[in-house]
Specification:
By secondary structure, this protein is mainly beta. It contains 2 helices and 12 strands, in the order ββββββββαβαβββ. The strands form 3 sheets. Strands 6, 7, 8, 9, 10, 11 and 12 form a 7-stranded mixed sheet that branches. A 3-stranded antiparallel sheet has the order 3-4-5, with no helix packed on it. Strands 1-2 form a two-stranded antiparallel sheet. The radius of gyration is 18 Å and the shape is globular. The structure holds zinc ion.
Length: about 200
């Protein structure tokens, strides 16, 4: 597959930012600013990066959304009609923003969201393939929470989930190359890399 490169200018330092034609998230390899392609052009995003776990290397960086949100679960009804108490918890999530199969997306999101994170400096390296809009990341988040609730040992019949987003950042995740797969250098989870190398 061949990609046409598009040239956009970093909203922070003016350097050219490169990406694939379908990318909407960009990282400036000159100044480390992250940006999202909006209707009026590139807008700066708060950006952070995570350190690989001990003994692992950052061979390739991939974009994710780091989202903090209040998650309210109400009207959780079990088969038989019993209801659980409502709850609201403040949680942090890391949701891969590049193309992945849903199964990999779910495994990696849950692995990353449940791992203690160490912040790294922003790498001066490319980070391509960011295609997930924030609004779609929130839809994914809802899916993950429902999946998590449905896996509880009780027999869930229905529930209501409300997500109150508090903050979001572009977060760069380190991966190692492993044949046709990528291995997350934080969680060790392997995913199909597809064409997203
Ligand atoms: Zn820049």
């Amino acid at each position: 597959m061949d990609f046409r490169l598009i040239n956009l200018h970093c909203p922070s330092c003016g350097s050219a930012m490169k990406g694939d034609p379908t990318d909407i998230l960009f990282l400036c390899t000159h100044c480390g600013a992250g940006a999202i392609l909006a209707d009026e052009g590139l807008e700066i995003l708060q950006t952070t990066a995570l350190l690989p776990a001990a003994g692992r290397r950052a061979e390739i960086w991939k974009p994710a959304w780091k989202i903090e949100a209040d998650i309210s679960i109400a009207d959780r009804v079990l088969f038989g009609g019993r209801r659980s108490a409502s709850s609201t918890t403040r949680r942090k999530f890391l949701l891969p923003a590049f193309d992945l199969k849903l199964r990999d997306l779910s495994r990696l999101s849950r692995g990353l969201s449940n791992t203690e994170e160490s912040i790294s400096e922003i790498p001066n390296e490319p980070c391509r393939g960011g295609r997930l809009e924030l609004s779609d990341a929130l839809i994914l988040l809802r899916y993950l929470i429902i999946e998590e609730e449905a896996e509880q040992p009780d027999r869930l019949a229905s529930l209501k989930v409300e997500i109150q987003p508090l903050s979001h950042k572009l977060c760069l995740i380190p991966f190692e190359k492993s044949g046709s797969q990528l291995r997350c250098a934080i969680t060790g989870i392997s995913i199909s890399a597809g064409d997203s190398t």
